[in-house]
Amino acid sequence: MKLGEWQMAGNGADGETARPLAIEARGLVKRFDGFTAVDGVDITVPQGAIYGILGPNGAGKTTTLRMLLGIIDPDEGVRRVLGHERPHEISHLIGYLPEERGLYPAMKAYEAIGFLGALRGLPLEEGRRRGKILLEEHGLGYAIDRQIRQLSKGMAQQVQLLGTLVHEPKLVVFDEPFSGLDALNQGKLERMMRGLAEKGTTVIFSTHVIAHAERLCDEVAIIAGGKVPFAGPVDVARDRIPAQVRLETRAGDGPWRQALPADARHEGHYWYFSLPESGIEPLLRALIEGEAGILSLSIERAGLHDAFVAIAGEAAARALAEDKDESR
Amino acid sequence: MSGRLSTLAAAMVIARRDFTAILFSRSFFFFLLGPLFPILVGGLAGGIGKDVQSSAARPELGVAMAPADTRAMLAAYRQLQPELGRALPVLVTVGDLQPGQQFDPAAAVQDKRLNLAAVLTGTPGQPVLTGPAERIEQWRGPVALLAAEAQRGAATSYPEVGLKPLALATTADEARSRMLTAQLGQTVLFLLTMLLAGMVLSNLVEEKGNKIIEVLAAAIPMDAVFLGKLFAMLAVSLVGITVWAGAGGAIWFAAGNSLGQFPAPAVGWPLFFVLGTAYFAMGYLLLGSLFLAIGSMAATVREVQTLSMPVTMLQLLNFFFASWAMARPGSLAELAAIAVPFSSPFTMLARAAQDDALLPHALALAWQVVCVAIFVRVGANVFRRWVMKSGPARGGSERKGLLARLRSRPAVR
To answer: I want to staple A131 with a disulfide (CB 3.0 to 4.6 A). Which of A4, A110, A267, B154 is the partner?
Structure first.
């Protein structure tokens, strides 16, 4: 299948109005010395979306992002970024914040922002002018003339973030943007990402923290072991797992028990089981007619974490949890 | 509003950053001072050596004759010395011999307290030289002249000889002189290339340490990063060379010297300098691109030194090859030295000193430009392959040895 055909299929499937794609990649493969780091990754990112690439460390997130950005070329597969097969051709429309932040220590904060803009085609003086304004707007006015080496790590990260955005890109890619940030700055970054999306900028970020993806993303790609077992809207991922029912009854036993699935668990006063495919109404009817004496009944939709476990497997979920603990 | 950058424009962004960062750093001041130290040490060593040579090394001829004969010989020495200078041995009296007095000239020559290369005994009419065979053979003529003058007894006046120096040199002299200029040009070119091309290494290692390399690689093509770094360091090098040449030239001319003291190259001094600059740029870019590729594989300065050592040795061999070929103009050896990219600049600069034909320079420069383009492209690919695989693996792959890292698969995130 060619990229264009795929784009039509991907966008028209749910019957919604087709949004143009910021990124479409098909069958991306990257091998390093015989080791397959990324193995046939498919990703489509609609323009203006916040898209998360979710997976534990070593899953292939950074390698995938680097291929999408043209930092490295895939061994197999095709990619198209903002309609171009060569990402460097539209470098001026892209912003990228790598996981390992880096700035020239001797540069002043506004110069660093100007330089990052110049790399993306913004005239150096204009970039420096915008850099001063951005620093003022983000409460870093006092740091304008300070060298990067004089700033704290967190402040330097913010300067690099502003440098990533100074040329007003249409697509912003963040690799593990929340790592190393305190809770306050994580909140600020989340707000900034939402603000970018509201302005029509496509935001892609990789993370191993499910909570960020769950709060921010319209769509996610779950990546594990170099493969993407799921890519699509967060709701669709959640729907991979049936909703969970918690039931409390007055009667301990009776004909109503036949209405429960065979794998229903009984813990304390409660029964736990997946909502049957037939839905809640037949279940309720069977419970009432079977004289269960319903004291309470709640239906909880699956979270992204549960979806991740179901899609990527327990091992990947454990790795993700370990990464999260380490990053704290 | 931002717009797409061409590869050259992107390279200039990198070059401008690197150039200003280096030029306005404190280390650049010391970099400029760097070459003064060898010159200073060389000057001091030369001065001391000259002093030692003039005071201690000049051999003396001991005179052991009857007092009247000794006085006559010394008077003759004073008479002839202004005309013959260092051609005459320095005379020192080691003994006024009375009639019948025994004297052992061999013992005097071997006496460690004396600085005698030989001893003169007998009379001015029958002088006898005792000493090592080579030395007394060398002094036979001057001593005969001194003895004849001593026998004459009266001061002699010598006619003033008019000097008419010719600017023209014989063909043999000219070829030999130009060979010296060629050698000098090659050596300076080699030293500058090695000194300055190595600088890109530390620059790149620093950048990898700063983690900024991924930002650069994401924004612009790797070729542009490479070119930008090479251009910046070339510009820095040219600034350094201008300062050194300016300072050295000022001192040279202030001391009353002129370029005319050096044998003029075949293409003339102005063109020789132009070609020298062009060949420096080519040699620098070739070696710089190789060093950059090496730098991409190294994570620390120590690794850079380890990896660059073989390249330095090979470049030394190239220099020797070019020097050897220089003495064989028009031979297959010279053609081979011109064709090999790394020896080509040295060989062609030597040719500029020896031969005034310009077409070979145009062809050689074109060939070198092609080689630079190939080396930069290959270097960029190596760089992309080694640097942009992924970041450090969990568990500290940074601690692994270089060879272990080269053998192992990269970490992937």
So the answer is: A110
